[in-house]
């Protein structure tokens, strides 16, 4: 189950976007602000979804210089996205 208590469509959309854009490792991690802008979702909502996905092991976070945090899809997240298409 993806993101218990959260909108399944938003979670799936976010996972799929991370996968399709290649945000699959620490070097390619993306910040909440960029995701919020591109997906046209409220920043707080994106962060809420990401934190739930992180708790489920589908995404991981990495701290950036200056204190920012970026997110990327984990191996488990890649498998989850691939399962959407099968």
Task: Please explain how this structure is put together.
This protein has 86 residues and is α+β, with helices and mostly antiparallel strands. The chain has a single domain (8-84), classed as Arc Repressor Mutant, subunit A (Orthogonal Bundle). 51% of the residues lie in helices and 14% in strands. The chain contains 4 helices and 3 strands. The protein has helices at residues 8-20, 32-39, 43-55, 75-84; strands at 30-31, 59-63, 69-73. A 3-stranded antiparallel beta sheet has the order 1-3-2. α1 packs across α4 (75-84). The longest helix has 13 residues, at 8-20. It starts with 7 loop residues before the first helix and ends with a helix.
């Amino acid at each position: 189950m993806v993101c218990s208590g959260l909108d399944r469509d938003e979670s799936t959309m976010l996972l799929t976007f991370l996968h399709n854009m290649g945000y699959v490792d620490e070097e390619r991690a993306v910040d909440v602000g960029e995701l919020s802008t591109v997906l046209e979702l409220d920043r707080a909502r994106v962060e809420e979804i990401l934190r739930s996905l992180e708790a489920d092991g589908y995404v991981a976070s990495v701290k950036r210089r200056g204190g920012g945090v970026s997110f990327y899809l984990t191996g488990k997240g890649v498998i989850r996205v691939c399962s959407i298409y099968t």
